[in-house]
Amino acid sequence: MSKAPVVISSKEQFASILKSSKIVVADFFADWCGPCQAVAPIYETLSVSLSRPNAVTFVKINSDTNLDLAEEYSITALPTFLLFRDGKVTQKVQGANLNELKEVVQKLASEVESLGESSDGSAGDGPALWKGAEIPRGYSDITDQVEIRGCELLNADEDAGPVKVLFDGSKPGALNNAKGKDSAKDSAKDWVQSGADDQLLLFIPFQSSIKLHTLQLTSLPEGGQDGVSRPQVIHLYINRPQNLDFGEADDTEPTQAVTLTSKDWNADGTTNISLRYVKFQVTTTLIVYVQKGSDGADMVRLDRVRLIGEAGAKREMGKLQKVAGDE
């Protein structure tokens, strides 16, 4: 599973991580540093989204308790973010400059992408690299731009997983389970499904204004209960300040309406929904309304949601922008 940053307690521990992980992202911080506290949630979100065992590791280094490391890497401002590849620093960002940090993350994403399927048999188990379907040429996975804490899912079955599992970079448990649907019921609940009927309303805010090209959905009802289906009719709405209710969604003209058929889903239970790109050039929030499931089932299920496109300019984020401006 994906994980939070590793807290470094010694120079030896850090050296070991540099040797064992091809890519390392290090956050040098201090407990008294206001900008450090402000960017910490974003850094943790990136770690959860992109970490991959023994390949991509995020760490946090307290410069007060690790003076030797702070001196070795010439840390003169906090926070400072260092990107390592094969144990060597490839990029450095000083201060709570979110635009520069975004560039580092985009570089990291391309580095991760360059690792490809080199391990083939094991890479598919890596949480950062699992792909349900190919990413359209010229675009990248920007799911790390999702503000996880602001997401909301209406009509969710409380016996399934929380909304955050939709954006996990790992391979869905239903695909990892080789024994089929019966034993999948005993695996971790890393999917969501509807409760009262076959409708879901998912509100997704972004950390930046993005250009959204493709919505990638994975749905594996065969790994869950009987009477659960994949989405069939989906309405999309952008730039709403908060989630709609079901009545509003039915009465509001969508930015785009999509009807899926069984042929739209690949062998991994994933569909790439091509968006009318001109309408999604400036997207700060996205609402995914599953209006109807397929096959007349009572419930609808989602295992993963990925966003494909380009990350744009940072939207105003209150405290974070003020901190950056104070630098």
From TrEMBL:
SUPFAM superfamilies: Galactose-binding domain-like, Thioredoxin-like. Pfam families: PITH (PF06201), Thioredoxin (PF00085). Keywords: Disulfide bond. It comes from the Eukaryota. Residues 1-110 form the Thioredoxin domain. The keyword Disulfide bond applies. CDD domains: TRX_family. One of its GO terms (cellular component) is cytoplasm. Residues 131-327 form the PITH domain. The keyword Disulfide bond applies. Belongs to the thioredoxin family. This is Thioredoxin-like protein 1. It comes from Tolypocladium capitatum.
